[in-house]
Design a protein that fits this description.
Bifunctional diguanylate cyclase/phosphodiesterase, binds ligand C2E, alpha/beta, binds magnesium ion
Length: about 280
């Protein structure tokens, strides 16, 4: 861009770009040592049966607290970790920690772990999962891996085969943030997902009376039922949203209305009441 063509725009724009690049650089450097400095931990958000309100398990959500920068949002540092090739060691730590912590919970609650496309394209990933299960003693059917549609974007990288080998371990797969990516429904018939997670944007839209959002939820629920999959609605924040989601036929719900992500001790405390109501349904 020419400096003559509106210097004001140029100067207003440039420092911001610089700041972003600087922030990236600082965060990336800090992230490189976050694991060894013990700055990561997991929080667990309850997943609840939509009909009965009883607890079925938890989703593990990664948290990074830097000593001076404070808490950094995963929406910021996960993409950074993917680009900086740090997602493999961090993702392995998440899997080991989640399996280890969930193995100590009472009852038969499940734990869901988010997995990046980058991790799935690593040939050693299936062995990492098998090892996390073996080391922790968590039975495979209590582990669920959440992947997004983006894993199917890169053709010829063997994502489908990797998912097949993961299923052979006896774990479950769910399709996260459904409807937000570039969906080709073909992979739903190729890969055995247990659950489709309906993105929060549809839940919010439906509760505001957006006809298209309601139509999409209905269609996804019908599709899931005919493929023998269940549905989880993400980001349910109010009683009204819960009622609507239940009426639309979603099997499970997750969101602040049922519980924010909890520290592991509190999650473990809740597993004493697996099968009991988290909230009146
Ligand atoms: P996600 O897997 O779709 O997780 C759901 C996100 O929605 C979480 O944000 C959760 O805290 C938030 N959430 C749950 N209920 C509500 C609600 O009622 N209202 C609102 N407004 N938000 C709600 P979080 O923890 O910030 O994580 C953001 C994303 O970062 C996750 O989205 C996931 O894609 C990614 N992520 C988190 N942990 C990991 C991880 O261990 N590995 C990988 N690869 N990605 C992770
Ligand atoms: Mg998720
Ligand atoms: Mg999600
Ligand atoms: Mg989401």
């Amino acid at each position: 861009r020419s400096k003559d063509a509106g210097g004001g725009v140029f100067h207003a724009y440039e420092p911001q770009l610089h700041l972003q690049a600087e922030e990236r650089r600082v965060l990336e450097m800090a992230l490189r040592s976050a694991l060894e400095k013990d700055e990561l931990h997991l929080m667990y958000q309850p997943v609840v049966d939509a009909g009965t309100g009883s607890l079925t398990g938890f989703e593990a959500l990664l948290r990074w607290t830097h000593p001076t920068l404070g808490p950094v949002s995963p929406a910021k540092f996960i993409p950074l970790a993917e680009e900086a090739r740090l997602i493999a060691p961090i993702g392995e730590w998440v899997l080991r920690t989640a399996c280890h912590e969930a193995a100590g919970w009472k009852s038969y609650s499940r734990v869901a772990v988010n997995v990046s496309a980058e991790q799935l394209h690593n040939p050693g990933f299936v062995a990492v999962v098998a090892n996390a299960l073996a080391t922790s003693g968590l039975s495979a059917d209590r582990l669920e891996l959440e992947v997004t549609e983006s894993v199917f974007l890169r053709e010829g990288t063997g994502a489908t085969q990797t998912l097949e080998r993961l299923l052979d371990l006896g774990i479950r797969l769910s399709l996260d943030d459904f409807g937000t990516g570039y969906s080709s429904l073909g992979y739903l018939s190729r890969t055995r997902f247990s659950t489709i997670k309906i993105d929060r944007s549809f839940v919010t839209g439906a509760a505001r009376g957006v006809k298209e959002a309601i139509a999409i939820i209905r269609a996804v629920v019908a599709l899931a039922q005919s493929l023998d999959m269940t549905t989880t609605a993400e980001g349910v924040e109010t009683e009204e949203e819960h009622m609507l989601i239940k009426t639309l036929g979603c099997s499970k719900v997750q969101g602040y209305y049922f519980g924010r992500p909890l520290p592991v001790e509190e999650a473990r405390g809740l597993t004493d009441s697996v099968g009991e109501q988290v909230r009146a349904a």
